[in-house]
Design a protein that fits this description.
By secondary structure, this protein is an alpha/beta fold. It folds into two domains: 120 residues; 66 residues. Helix content is 42%, strand content 9%. The chain is built from ten helices and five strands, in the order αββαβαβαβαααααα. The radius of gyration is 18 Å and the shape is elongated. The N and C termini lie close together (12 Å). The mean pLDDT is 91.
């Protein structure tokens, strides 16, 4: 099998692409597909020789989520499978001992904290391309609040109170609008809040992991 086939990567991605420069996807060895769902990997390995799969985003409500069995079958068939950012990070954490490869900060957080729940990366997004996010995953909100804590804009007590409040609500309600309303209850200037939320992409670590993955292209260095 040629190295060109080995270096191909099928990327299953959706809302984590939000705000990412499209030039990062302009590689002849990269095939971009919508968020993964049950059966996608099975169909892929039936139609193509072994190469690479990168799981980022996935469907789990409207259709069954990608299963462990189909990932394992692909690994046994010689495919390299990467997981990062969102559902991919969860599956990589669950299956790294079986050969799946994890990448990025989100994966490392799941690997280091056995109590980290799946809803940390869950969000509501558009059903069709470009799959823009409607709510924000908890992991982004935590990252934002920790930054504000480190900058001494909020106190530890305020950070923990906001996290408790937002963590205990349905993930679909975790929007920037709600976060703004919650922050306005604190002694923080509205202008400061609005500037921070306007630049919220700085705190979207799921997308930051994906950017790093696309820049480094680690799948091109795992031909064996």
């Amino acid at each position: 099998m040629s190295n060109k086939i080995h270096e191909m990567c099928t990327l299953f991605v959706g809302p984590s692409l939000q705000g990412i420069d499209s030039k990062l996807l302009a590689h002849e060895n990269l095939i971009v597909r919508p968020p993964i769902r049950r059966g996608d990997i099975e169909s892929l390995i039936e139609q193509s020789p072994p190469s690479n799969i990168a799981i980022v985003d996935g469907i789990f409500h409207a259709h069954p989520a990608v299963g462990h069995a189909e990932i394992l079958s692909a690994l046994r068939a010689g495919w390299k499978i990467w997981g990062l950012s969102s559902m991919g990070a969860i599956r990589a954490c669950e299956m790294d001992i079986l050969g799946m490869k994890g990448f990025g900060d989100v994966y490392r957080q799941f690997s280091s904290d056995p109590n980290m729940s799946d809803d940390e990366v869950t969000l509501i997004h558009q059903e069709q391309e470009p799959f823009l996010s409607i709510s924000e995953p908890m992991i982004h909100i935590r990252f934002f609040l920790r930054h504000w804590l480190n900058e001494r804009i909020i106190t530890v007590e305020q950070e923990q109170s906001l996290i408790h409040k937002i963590k205990n609500m349905w993930y679909g309600y975790r929007t920037l609008k709600f976060l703004r309303e919650a922050l306005l209850e604190l002694p923080v200037a509205a202008e400061k809040i609005d500037i921070a939320l306007k630049n919220f992409s700085t705190y979207r670590i799921k997308s930051l992991d994906l950017i790093e993955f696309l820049k480094l292209q680690p799948w091109t260095r795992t031909v064996n």
